[in-house]
Amino acid sequence: MRYFNENTGDEVQLDGQSARLDSLANWKRVEDGELLPEVVGDGVLSRPSLGGARPSRAPGQVLVETAPPAPEDVPTQETPPVELTPVTSPVADDVKEPAKNASKADWLAYTRTRTQTSEEEAEIEALSRDELAARYGGSS
Description:
Blueprint: E1 2-5, E2 11-13, H1 19-23, E3 27-30, E4 63-64, H2 104-112, H3 118-124, H4 129-136
Helix pairs in contact: 2-4
C-alpha cells in the first residue's frame, strides 16, 4: 500500500493499510500506476523546494517500511549496560563577574560557574539578585 502526503510530497510504502495515515486528511492512498496528486501548500508544512513542476521519482526515493531489528540487536536483561560518560565543561577562571546591577539571569549564569555542589546550585534559584551578588560577587 502506498500513501502520499499532499502537503509535503512524501511517499510511504507499507505492507498493508495504515489506520493512522487513513485518518489524516493530508495522506492519500495511491494505487500502483496511479499518478500522484498535486502538492498543496498549506503555509506551514510546505517546502520551498516543492514549487513548480514535480520531478519524477527515481528508484530508491520512496520511503519503505523497514524490517524490525534482528533479535540479537534487541537489548535484553543480559545485555551489559551502556557506559555513560558525563559531559562536563571545565570551570572557566576567566568568566567575568557581572555588574552588581546586572539582571538576576546574568548573576545565575555566573553563579552556576562558581557553585561547588548540586545542593548549592539548587539553592541559588531561590536567592535574589542582590543576595547572589553579595554571596558570589566580590569586585564590582
